[in-house]
Specification:
Elements: H1 2-13, E1 29-30, E2 62-66, E3 72-77, E4 83-86, E5 93-96, E6 99-100, E7 109-112, E8 119-124, E9 130-137, E10 140-148, E11 155-159, H2 185-192, H3 194-200, E12 208-219, E13 222-232, E14 237-246, E15 252-253, E16 260-263, E17 266-267, E18 269-273, E19 278-279, E20 283-292, E21 305-308, H4 314-319, E22 323-324
Amino acid sequence: MKTRSLETALAILSSVQVLAAVPDLSGIFRGFPTTPTTPTSTTALSPAPPSPAPLISSNHPIQQITLDPLQVIQVPVAIDRLTTLRFPSPVSDLASALISTEPHPSAHFQMTFHPGESFFSVRALRANASTTLNVVWKSQTFVFHFHESANPWLSVILGEPVPIRPNRSAVPKTRTLPAQANPADKYLDVARNLASLRRQYPLSMADVDQIETRFERRFNGVVVRMPELLHFKTDRVGVARIDLSNPDNAPVDLGPNPIQLRRQGQPLRVLGSDFDGTLPALGGRIALVAFQFPLGEVIRDPTDFQIVVPAMEPTSARSGSSTRSKP
């Protein structure tokens, strides 16, 4: 029950975030016209109701959906809460009518989107509002149908599409889509929003311990600090918050698996991370790394944890696995 409460708390967090206006999205988001527009009707594919049937028959506020360019994805949204949709990587373009990034009398929906991001958030501006949004991602177009609802989805995690079979029909079917397996997502999201979640949902967050570690090490000039760990006790999952700084005037690439964690000298299984291994020149990054605790393990001494950066270790450095760009 604690895990389910944690997921619900994370989903509801989206509803308290404020929509931020994006001043210039030309070429990235083509919004609604300045006068109200009636959406163009389309030919029905079957004698179904006017709105296509939902792809998932569930009112759960958190959804995981596999992308499909031949399906219209129904997304219920609310007036007083945000719905956030996250793609596997940054999207190329967004196009819609009746959606605005700023308040407008003709808008039926308001959107928050920053160019180069892989996610965007939407909320309805009026009751019974309905419109579609076309999203271009990896040279494919995916269609979303937003409609105002009292039971909105608050977080939609979108997974890579499956290959299209040559003889596949374009007629949408009601079916349950397989979840995109990424066990680290919810734990990384909690770590990003820990302070807000603790204030709003103290009971749900009682299962999460926040532990000070004070780990610090230098790797060929790169300074690595681990100020704290989060311990999700029921799920036996930890999240390490790691600060990396590069004092050099050249960027650093730490490779595809930049960080490893050990406890008492034994490697821990990494579930996922938001760090891509790159450090800017004269700059730094904060990395979140989710890992699995061995069965029955508890944290008694936080100094038992160590960080290993394979590309910067002496043996790796001699083999040339560290890449430091020339200015």
